[in-house]
């Protein structure tokens, strides 16, 4: 993999993640299952509904890990250019604050087609922003120190979930718990466990872009790390396993794969980061040779934030606001058709914005 090709697999992987996220959101607006099932439940009507939901579980770990990898790269690049470290960190922190603001002002309102302003929810984009702010402080630690930090947070998280609080209140303890540890109506993505995955991503970034220098070794090592994550998932899912929250019938049964995401369980934080590494290894191996085939993913992956902030209001406006298409009246087929339409609509928009971003020097455009 030549130096100039090093980020192709990152764009392709981000494109896959953003496409799967679009599938989940298309299902949210067109699939009637969400009129009967709560987001944190697994009581789906059929195996296809279960698969439709579970494929999206790759998205949040993928976003955080790849964001972590690129934060590490950004700091290293600035350091190599002789920029003061405080300035490089400040720029990343500003971007993190920008993401938090976009979540509160734009993303929250976009889910309802901008029917009202919603400042009372701290979602995934805000959590990514918070993780970037924190990661800016530690991304230049030695890789083994960062890995120890990440593993420590992942291991400690099940203990922190035992802290008692009342999720039905709006007091500061509830806010603090759901900001950092637990998932609830105020925040489904607590910062600490997801920040840990961003730190893991920063370690992966250092290994990918600096330490694993030859293509074959990079692919092999990424594959091995991914396989290790899957193996650790099986250990974490054992009945007496530490941090095991979701019960199951037997190993290998459908319920065995029902892993908690809100907040992420210990087994979740083994399996899905492992899958991120496995898919990354696959794109490293074939992404450049099959670049034409993966071109749409590459386009989406170069503009993931733009895709995110545009596709949600598109879905909400045509269903909930204008009623041009039925809201939550279909099943799996309707979700898949809506997803295909969404990808078709977003492709030229993302290509256009990629050109705008490449030409523009405006700091707001660059942050997107």
From TrEMBL:
Which branch of life, at top level?
A: Bacteria
Q: Does the keyword Transmembrane helix apply?
A: yes
User: Where would I find the Heparan-alpha-glucosaminide N-acetyltransferase catalytic domain in this sequence?
Assistant: 6-215
InterPro entries per the UniProt record, alphabetical: HGSNAT_cat (IPR012429)
Please give the start and end residues of each transmembrane region.
50-75, 96-115, 121-142, 191-209, 221-240, 270-293, 305-327, 333-354
Alphabetically list the UniProt keywords.
Answer: Membrane, Transmembrane, Transmembrane helix
Name by which UniProt lists this protein: DUF1624 domain-containing protein
Give the source species: Eiseniibacteriota bacterium
